[in-house]
Amino acid sequence: MECVFGLVGNDFAVVAADTSAVHSILVHKSNEDKIMILDSHKLIAASGESGDRVQFTEYIQKNVALYQFRNGIPLTTAAAANFTRGELATALRKNPYFVNILLAGYDKETGPSLYYIDYIATLHKVDKGAFGYGSYFSLAMMDRHYHSGMTVEEAIDLVDKCIVEIRSRLVVAPPNFVIKIVDKDGAKEYAWRESVKDAAVASA
Amino acid sequence: MSIFEYNGSALVAMVGKNCFAIASDRRLGVQLQTIATDFQRISKIHDRLFLGLSGLATDAQTLYQRLVFRHKLYQLREERDMKPETFANLVSAILYEKRFGPYFCQPVIAGLGDEDKPFICTMDSIGAKELAKDFVVAGTASESLYGACESMFKQDMEPEDLFETVSQALLSSVDRDCLSGWGGHVYVVTPTEVKERILKGRMD
């Protein structure tokens, strides 16, 4: 029931993910951040098996940082996406990672971009993408309302439309979402959309 | 659903008078859901050799990267481009290497050989070559494509006629297949030029 989706705007890319960590019928927590800041200008929104998700995205993050240390310049978004695909493809027939990824980034030369990377290492550059059961609703909303060159306000409005649709139409809809954005000034958290807050822990 | 039908694809290559055409659909799907409508299935190996890969998209991408690597090595060693017949043998060998854990792809190879004689061939996922003098087909729409090509094909067509024939055969076949379509990509290659055209068909 994990929902991850994203789209590209006029000079930014935005991704949103649900924040529930679920095991069978139990919700462990509802503020799990599934969008990792890969480096200053890249975001990786991942969904899938939780152990693989954390392990694989951290592995990619550390290798991207290593490249920057060794070479003095950061990887482009396309290069990071292809590296990620390569790692998934190599592991596919040995010890596959069950992680679906939307990689959003901003490069000075080429602007914003979004890459769809399947768990079986299918890579495609897209303007809008989504994973999970929520994709049936979010892709349909984006197909209707998306146009190229959207402003931040328009894009967030569309993201909110998708979240409303998921909340009202998906049977076990995740209650909370996090939205992160990447533009020329870097990757950052934009907002949380919470409808259920974890109970505060009683003090000792 | 078979693993060959996971992403959906349609490929056709046809021989004309001193020219050939290779065409593909543009849909990238995940079973019944459409992810993208601008997926490239046909890649250029060199100016007179094109490779189309149908079947599982991740294996098509991996296989393409391996083949480009091998061709570049060949170019460095031999100081010339590979002949289409040689390339077909290379693809066949690489596929058979994985005989008991194959790449789930069906390649279509089209090129201009010695004296500008067009060459087309296809093979199954373990490298069994099928050389043809008229046309070859691959993908989820292959059965429809066989019928369409058989009835529309004529010997020694000029490039413009060949383009029309290949386009009509492709579009009419993918319209009967729910897993392929969303337009077409046609390359018509003569000894002097390569013409790339995008077809707009039924966008469903």
Strand content of chain B: 25-35%
Q: What is the H/E order of chain B?
A: EEEEEEHHEEEEHHEE
Written as H for each helix and E for each strand, in order along the chain, the element string of chain A is EEEEEEHHEEEEHHEE
Number of helices of chain A: 4
Structural class of chain A: alpha+beta
Count every beta strand of chain A, where a strand is a DSSP E run of 2 or more residues: 12
The chain-level mean pLDDT of chain A equals 94
Strand order of the largest sheet of chain A: 10-1-2-11-12
Structure description:
Helix content of chain A is 33%, strand content 34%. Chain A is built from four helices and twelve strands, in the order E-E-E-E-E-E-H-H-E-E-E-E-H-H-E-E. In chain A, the strands form three sheets. A five-stranded antiparallel beta sheet of chain A has the order 10-1-2-11-12, covered by helices on one side. Chain B has four helices and twelve strands, in the order E-E-E-E-E-E-H-H-E-E-E-E-H-H-E-E. In chain B, the strands form three sheets. Chain B has a five-stranded antiparallel beta sheet, covered by helices on one side. In chain B, helix 3 runs antiparallel to helix 4. Chain B is globular, with a radius of gyration of 16 Å. Chain B starts with 9 loop residues before the first strand and ends in a 5-residue tail after the last strand.
Features:
heterodimer, A: 204 residues, alpha+beta, five-stranded antiparallel sheet, 4 helices, 12 strands, globular, B: 204 residues, 31% helix
Short description:
By secondary structure, chain A is an alpha+beta fold.
List the helices and strands and how they pair.
The complex is a heterodimer of chains A (204) and B (204).
Chain A: E1 4-8, E2 12-18, E3 21-23, E4 26-29, E5 35-39, E6 42-48, H1 50-71, H2 77-92, E7 99-107, E8 111-117, E9 123-126, E10 128-131, H3 135-145, H4 152-169, E11 177-183, E12 186-193
Antiparallel strand pairs in A: 1-2, 1-10, 2-11, 3-4, 5-6, 6-7, 7-8, 8-9, 11-12
Chain B: E1 10-15, E2 20-25, E3 28-30, E4 33-36, E5 42-46, E6 49-55, H1 57-78, H2 84-97, E7 105-112, E8 118-123, E9 129-132, E10 135-139, H3 142-152, H4 159-174, E11 184-189, E12 194-199
Antiparallel strand pairs in B: 1-2, 1-10, 2-11, 3-4, 5-6, 6-7, 7-8, 8-9, 11-12
Helix pairs in contact in B: 3-4
